[in-house]
Structure prediction request, 176 residues.
Amino acid sequence: MSPIFQISWWVCTILVLIMIFWQDFKYRGIHWMLFPVLGILLLVDGILKNDLTYYSMQLLGALFFIGLQLFVLAAYIRLTRGCWSGFTKRYIGLGDILFWICACLSFSLVNFVAYFMVSTLFALILHVICQQLPKYNQKSIPLAGFQSVPLIAVFILEKLTQLDRYLNITNYWMPN
Prediction:
């Protein structure tokens, strides 16, 4: 990959993530076009940096993880609330789900699970902090927007250090 392409990709990805943060924070919604743009940027990066078989297997694992999370959440809501209606309107936004799908394109399975947990905790803490601000009167959490902040941090750290988002740490400590 040429350095010009790498810098252009990096800048475009960061800009899309900033737009996701801003739109979700300000409007509690994200323009649908940002998800295919982000998905294409991250998919191209993943394919260019990885063996296709390895990348595909990691991606399938991450998508299964997302599906499992959604299933558990839906089952919990069904058991506690007694209905399925409004799942993507009242409890989790479709934009949040689409963001997770895009984000899983950026990591190996192990790293995605770690990112998912850390960014969810970050979003909850940031929401609690924002609730203390006088002009912030939202009850819902802009999850995709807040989770885009740690993803921006990962991309910046990757650029400044030797961090590898696709590296599966289990390759180094598990016996063959």
